[in-house]
Amino acid sequence: MASAQWLALILALLLIIIHLLTKDRKQNKRLPPGSMGIPIIGQSLSLLRAMRTNTGERWIEDRINKYGSISKLSLFGQPTVFLTGPAANKFIFSNDSLALKQPQSFTRIIGSRNMTEFVGADHKRLRGAVSYFLKPEILRKYVGKLDEEIRQHFRTNWFGHQQVKVSPSMKRLTFNAMCATIFGIKQGTTRELLVNEFKYMMAGMWTVPINLPFTRFHNSLKGREKVGKILTRIIEEKRSALQKGQCSSEDEDLITYLLSLGTDNDETFTEEEILDNAVLLMIAGHDTTAIVLTFICRHLANDAVTYAAVLNEQEEIAKSKAPGEALTWDDLLKMKYTWRVAQEILRTIPPAFFGFRRVIKDVEFGGYLIPKGWQVFWTTSVTHMDGSIFKEPERFDPSRFEKQSEIPPYCFVPFGAGPRICAGYEFAKTEMLVAVHYMVTRFKWSLCCKDDTFIRDPMPSPKEGLPVLIEVKASL
């Protein structure tokens, strides 16, 4: 009897093993083509090397030529599927089986309650609240405050200076704009403390998440802790003001708005959620917009025709303003050519060259299986630099965006697309237009160094911070 039981058990185990082997073989046949490379390392080092040498487009092109538009690989220790093209972009930005994915270092520094870590109802709840505050109907009320912050930045950091490093200057400008309009933090000691700790926090955002003394990641965690303490104090102050009826409006800043949401329909946000998403927005609204402004400045210094067209448009608006009068939402609506220039910068030098999505359940695309637990890797350059979508893609041509309807859907994706388009898109646009207005109407500049190339680490960064010589044209 014992022998029969052992035989039955062995037979059952064999059947299970055969089933698993068959299942894996079937699954592997359905996986996209490609090599996973060296265990753990995979293709990570070659991608990072390409980014730092600014040959990322060639790296992508070589991969497509070898494996096609869908392939598997390993990046940053994770099995990955690389997808390209308009249909892939639509799949990535609209499929509920995919969720945002950030590097572990990014999540640990920001906090686990930020919206990029959520899916389903929780993600919808957080995104909905943030999107409401950043929509045009709300933003139009903050153009004046944004105008004053940007003018103050140029008064302090450009007037009286013969030379300016554009990249760090634009990062300071966008950070101050975020503090004033999104978080209601006025100029002073609190903002200066926040700026200093924010620098430490950002330094290790995309590093190996090893928390050992003297590592960039360790210093970033310490910076995040101090930023958290400052923001927690601000949250408490705004909660107290709200309870005492001392706020002129519940949507006067994002923190006050989130605190004001009631318990109806489960809209209440915890302090941890408010804190983590405030940090997320500080990062998202800081680096990307600063990068675009930096490369607009760089391009206008090299392209006299585009510079003249932008200047002409902005001077016409300036003529309609009284001395010292702030820009309005209606003024921004007139900046059509300037925004097309910004869009062309976003097409040719997108701040985010690539991104990831995590697969939360098995999903298929193009006849292949993408298993749960894998990540999807996508890049902007494939459609942005596709000659069948954008004629002569290497040529800088703002007129491409004169008729937005002629650009196929899911092809121009610097802010994402569809239901996953960046919630801060309109804020970034507003900030860029105000900054460019005062840049071109109040200053002339020229590049200090002939070598104005840049690297991606992982975002585009010009050599030496893009130093320029400044000539003041008019006061602010």
UniProtKB/TrEMBL annotation:
PANTHER family in alphabetical order: CYTOCHROME P450 26, OS07G0520300 PROTEIN
Organism for this UniProt entry: Dioscorea cayennensis subsp. rotundata
Record bears the keyword Transport: no
Keywords of this entry: Heme, Iron, Metal-binding, Monooxygenase, Oxidoreductase, Signal
Cofactor annotation: heme
KW Signal (keyword) present: yes
Residues given in the record as heme binding sites: 422
Protein name (database record): LOW QUALITY PROTEIN: taxadiene 5-alpha hydroxylase-like
One example of a Gene Ontology biological process annotation: sterol metabolic process
One Gene Ontology MF term: oxidoreductase activity, acting on paired donors, with incorporation or reduction of molecular oxygen
CDD domains xrefs: CYP90-like
Family of this protein: Belongs to the cytochrome P450 family.
Signal peptide: 1-22
InterPro entries: Cyt_P450, Cyt_P450_CS, Cyt_P450_E_grp-I, Cyt_P450_sf
Lineage: superkingdom: Eukaryota
UniProt gene name: LOC120266577
